[in-house]
């Protein structure tokens, strides 16, 4: 029989009681449990009927308990039972020194005899005659009267021990649960920090992080809004969330607008803002229709605002507690580190490219006819690289190579570079040095070693009649062959001192004609199929800029076209 | 699930507690041992459906334990998960020889571990089911 409990709370642990009952049964002591006032809550199902009757029929226990009043001794109370051959001891269950219930230890300590009126009346109540009751009682095991007291004390000690063991088990289980969540946190942080790649887009990293967080803490939704990268701003504005995991019933931009104030507070103070409830009179009260609780974690490093991480609701509807916050803060910190480094990395990238563009523009600008040339060649080369299926990273290297292909011209006398008429053999020899000069200039920069082939070999010819090394066919590195086509295309498409720009169709025809001679035939074929609209736009832009700067293109002292 | 027994072995008590709690909450039976010898004793007296063991333990290593268990009759295909710290590089060959199916690095996520346990046991059940189908099909 499973113990039946009333809804009144007692310090009742039925597992403990059942175990205790099991141990004392063999000795003849049986257990029962009463509530604070003496009503029977539970008794050992194997208790002999005669003993059980004493607890149920005309029990005077409640009155006796009442008479005790406040004078409850720790040693328990010997009760007077209905019949003389049965003894009962009451042990109090205490919680903070208040009685919350009683344990009853009951046993037969004497031979039962059918004597006395009280007994007869008692038996009648049980629908038995006195003889039957006595016979029934004598079936119960006998506990030597002198031993009853000591045995009861032992039982009480055992009960205390069992209780404290149960409490310890409970504590251990609690600690283990907490330990488990600490493990999850450590595993997550370890994963995050070892997986950081500052060159990757923030998107991918943040999404992974948000998803892990959502799973571990069982959150309804997690999102990150990144600060717009402006230089000076008095108040940080967020347009929209960059990453969102889960669904909180409100769209990202709307949520950011509504939570404008808590977000601002978080960033201003640099501390996470927890809102476990939404007051009905605050600015974001309307959110209360969809959202119950939220947390705003500022993503800030060195007073630089990088963004904000927002967690919305827990799926089990409980409040955000210190465990959740610790994890959110740690993760927020990791995100800040990542974002700061990613920003620095991209700053560096921008700086590097900025310098390169400035360098190559300045070389191109020596001759008005070549203005913008390197940029255009770089873009065309990259397009061609993409079209032939090179991976993105490679295409970017081709772009760099195209940008730098004429950097060696800085070693060529300006008079030669800008000479309007035909070049002498010596002058031609000087110009032919520019690929090698370029390669030499770049030779000391470790990070640019892979783009040197494009610089050095962009004047080699497929048929081997190019310069400087007279390489032929596939011996010419791919980068060189790519830039060769793009370079020639732009040269033909630009106005020169000796001729105006050729129309697109003519240029493409020429490229096709020279395929196999000057150009790699396969590359030439693919090149002519590119979309040249962006190119033509770029050319038009450069021309417009030049005209605006009013530098005459086709007018030269002494005339001549 | 209640009839699936997992044997968890680690010399660090806190790990045993965490693993034990996580798996018990998921409905599995869990036996724990602090070292290889104890684990073998338990395995001798009880059925084992899956082994989770730490690698570095005083006395018998987790690999050695796995090897010995897999050598026992009927236990050749016992799914086994090894827990180890990063940096203690274990060759694939070593792992395969010892019959380790999955290697998890510490600090590990208890959630992750539970998922791997589910996967391994499910896979094993599927293999068992398919090997029972009559050949006449």
The CATH superfamily of chain B bears the name: Response regulator
Which CATH first-tier class of the largest domain in chain A would you pick?
Mainly Alpha
What is the CATH architecture annotation of the largest domain in chain A?
Orthogonal Bundle
Helix content of chain A: 40-55%
Helix/strand/pairing class of chain B, anyone? alpha/beta
Counting structural domains of chain A, the number is 3
Largest sheet of chain B: 5 strands, parallel
Count of structural domains of chain B: 1
Please, what is the CATH homologous superfamily of the largest domain in chain A? Hypothetical protein af1432
Mean pLDDT of chain B comes to: 89
Radius of gyration of chain A: 46 Å
Instruction: Please identify, by name, the CATH architecture of chain B.
Output: 3-Layer(aba) Sandwich
SSE class of chain A: alpha+beta
Kindly report how far apart the N and C termini of chain B lie: 30 Å
Helix tally of chain B equals 5
């Amino acid at each position: 029989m499973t113990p039946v409990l009333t809804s009144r709370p007692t310090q009742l642990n039925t597992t403990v009681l059942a175990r205790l009952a099991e141990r004392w049964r063999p000795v003849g002591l049986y257990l029962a449990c009463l509530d604070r006032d003496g009503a029977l809550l539970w008794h050992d199902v194997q208790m002999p009927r005669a003993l059980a009757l004493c607890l149920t029929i005309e029990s005077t226990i409640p009155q006796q308990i009442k008479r005790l009043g406040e004078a409850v001794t720790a040693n328990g109370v010997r009760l007077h039972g209905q019949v003389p051959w049965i003894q009962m001891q009451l042990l109090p269950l205490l919680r903070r020194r208040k009685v919350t219930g009683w344990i009853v230890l009951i046993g037969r300590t004497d031979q039962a005899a059918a004597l006395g009126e009280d007994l007869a009346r008692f038996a009648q109540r049980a629908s038995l005659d006195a003889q039957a009751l006595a016979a029934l009682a004598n079936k119960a095991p006998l506990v030597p009267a002198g031993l009853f007291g000591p045995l009861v004390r032992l039982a009480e000690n055992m009960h205390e021990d069992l209780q404290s063991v149960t409490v310890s088990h409970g504590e251990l289980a609690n600690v283990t649960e907490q330990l488990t969540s600490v493990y999850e946190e450590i595993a997550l942080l370890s994963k995050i920090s070892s997986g950081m790649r500052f060159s990757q887009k923030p998107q991918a990293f943040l999404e992974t992080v948000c998803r892990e967080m959502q799973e571990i803490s069982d959150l309804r939704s997690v999102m990150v809004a990144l600060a717009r990268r402006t230089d000076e701003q008095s108040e940080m504005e967020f347009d929209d969330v960059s990453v969102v995991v889960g669904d909180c019933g409100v769209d990202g931009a709307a949520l950011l607008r509504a939570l404008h104030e808590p977000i601002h507070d978080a960033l201003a103070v640099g501390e996470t803002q927890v809102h476990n409830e939404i007051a009905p009179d605050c600015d974001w009260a309307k959110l209360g229709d969809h959202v119950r609780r939220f947390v705003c974690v500022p993503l800030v490093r060195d007073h630089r605002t990088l963004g904000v991480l927002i967690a919305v609701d827990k799926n089990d509807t409980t409040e955000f507690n210190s465990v959740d916050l610790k994890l959110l803060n740690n993760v927020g910190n990791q995100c800040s580190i990542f974002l700061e480094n990613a920003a620095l990395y991209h700053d560096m990238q921008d700086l590097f490219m900025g310098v390169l563009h400035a360098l190559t523009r300045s070389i191109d600008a020596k001759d008005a006819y070549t203005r913008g040339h390197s940029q255009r060649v770089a873009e065309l080369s990259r397009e061609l690289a993409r079209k032939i299926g090179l991976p993105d990273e490679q295409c970017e290297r081709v772009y760099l190579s195209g940008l730098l292909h004429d950097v060696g011209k800085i070693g060529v006398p300006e008079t030669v570079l800008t000479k309007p008429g035909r070049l002498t053999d010596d002058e031609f020899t000087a110009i032919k040095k520019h690929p090698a000069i370029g390669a030499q200039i770049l030779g000391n920069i470790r990070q640019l070693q892979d783009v040197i082939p494009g610089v050095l070999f962009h004047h080699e010819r497929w048929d081997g009649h190019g310069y400087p090394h007279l390489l032929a066919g596939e011996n010419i590195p791919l980068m060189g062959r790519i830039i060769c086509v793009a370079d020639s295309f732009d040269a033909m498409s630009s106005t020169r001192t000796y001729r105006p720009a050729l129309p697109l169709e003519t240029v493409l025809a020429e490229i096709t004609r020279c395929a196999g001679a000057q150009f790699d035939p396969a590359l030439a074929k693919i090149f002519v199929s590119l979309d040249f609209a962006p190119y033509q736009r770029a050319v038009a832009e450069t021309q417009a800029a030049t005209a605006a700067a009013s530098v005459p293109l086709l007018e030269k002292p002494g005339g001549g076209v | 699930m209640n009839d699936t027994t997992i044997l968890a072995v680690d010399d660090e008590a806190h790990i045993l507690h965490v693993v034990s709690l996580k798996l018990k909450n998921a409905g599995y039976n869990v036996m724990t041992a602090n070292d290889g010898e104890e684990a073998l004793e338990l395995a001798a007296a009880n059925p084992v459906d899956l082994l989770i063991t730490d690698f570095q333990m005083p006395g018998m290593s987790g690999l050695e334990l796995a090897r010995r268990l897999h050598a026992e009759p009927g236990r050749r295909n016992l799914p086994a998960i090894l827990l180890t710290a990063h940096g203690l590089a274990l060759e694939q060959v070593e792992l395969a020889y010892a019959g380790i199916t999955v290697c998890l690095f510490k600090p590990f996520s208890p959630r992750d571990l539970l998922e791997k346990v589910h996967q391994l046991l499910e896979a094993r059940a599927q293999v068992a089911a398919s090997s029972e189908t009559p050949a006449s099909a």
